[in-house]
Amino acid sequence: MSGCLLSIDQGTTSTRAILFDLMGNIRGVAQKELKLHYPHNGWVEQDAEDIWRDTQEVCRGALERSGVKASEALAIGITNQRETTVVWDRKTGRPLYNAIVWQDRRTADFCNSLKAHEDAVRRKTGLLLDPYFSATKIKWILDSVPDAREKARRGELAFGTIDSFLLWRLTGGKVHATDATNAARTLLFDVVRQDWDDDLLALFGVPRSMLPEVRDNSGLFGTTDVLGGATPVAGMAGDQQAALVGQACFRPGMVKSTYGTGCFALVNIGAAFRVSKNKMLTTVGYRLGGKVTYAIEGAIFAAGSAVQWLRDGLGIIKSAEESEALAQSVPDNGGVYMVPGFTGLGAPYWNPHARGAIVGLTRGSTAAHVVRAALEAQAYQTCDLLQAMADDAGHAIGELRVDGGMVRNSFVCQFLADMTMTPVLRPKVIETTALGAAYLAGLHVGVFSTPDDIQKNWQCERRFTPAMKEAGRERLYAGWSHAIRQILS
Ligand code: ADP
Question: Per the CATH hierarchy, to which homologous superfamily does domain 4-239 belong?
Fold first, then answer.
């Protein structure tokens, strides 16, 4: 078979389209930065019309840049920033309000008022009661936009996460659907029964008539003329789940960890739903042929953003790339540890009030030690996540497949292997999120017959083997634990 697969990767800070050949190699990329709006403290919004305009532009741009003809694009896959919420009018297709972004905290008080329900919610959704997820954002729009609740009652409104909104627009308003991984992030979806849940809908005051149909991650979602002809939209998944597919983590115990602005690690736990004992999230990893595979997810809020802070906040590096050589210019961290808790600490600590710190400074400490401490912190934090994930998964973690901008840094990858005592595998294509969406589309149009075919496409660019002696590792980890205790006290 010949041709290409087009992936739409709609992220928080940018919208991209990447054209892949059938071996998973990149043929063309187009990208547009996306503006975030902060109307009040803790509020984060985007203009859904910007997202739609950029999406059309980058799809055509990727095609033009690669020189590939529209007719060669066999299918489109969509992957997206998860949880971000759009409510639109079914008749006009126009959003009632800006997209409320996953980072938005405006519904924190409402979430706190529901804490008594948290265990019940967790057993159905695998999630925590937090403003992060879509449900309370939908309620806020219905309660705040004049006449919205009345219109919703009359069945005139539609809700969607970004995947669903884009699909609606791409199909000219013909299809209102989402996929199981995006549905799993709304707090409204029972991930065991794989259906919207009436008790949850009542709890959050969301009418069922607004909700999209929930489908497998691979299948015919609709056709679009965004490229000129009629191209099938055949794959869809939330960004972290798409990366799980892009990294071919199809067996229980397989882990992918993405180091971008933040870090998200997902472990495949197989077909049985399980609530985490360690305050991690349980989510749908992927759903293919009606069969659900679950994943446990852990998040570190600050990964690459710590490097950005070294560059823009402290000014001790000029570029992110420079951090690698600088960290390696000293033999060790000199006792310096950085806890990059700029916006609190995520899993497994979940402390929103914690703040960052650099500890262990002496008169001998240099910029190189601080940079090294920032990079090392990613590995210590990953250790904490992996311990919790292995416990929840009931499997030892055999290897760690990494991706995201930060893993270009080989010092980070090697230190990660040393501290986690786990081989770290860096794939040839680190754009695994977009690749995963393309793979899902390819599965439907027959480029791949089974996930095994995708696994065969996965190529390791470099394997980092644990090489540090146990005593050194324990000493370093003890230093990190001490730094964390100082922050939390
Ligand atoms: P996102 O998709 O979240 O925007 P990316 O996957 O594009 O993030 O990764 C960008 C992040 O990676 C930035 O925060 C940047 O500081 C960090 N980064 C990029 N290259 C390096 C490097 N060589 N060393 C360390 N960090 C890096």
Answer: ATPase, nucleotide binding domain (3.30.420.40)
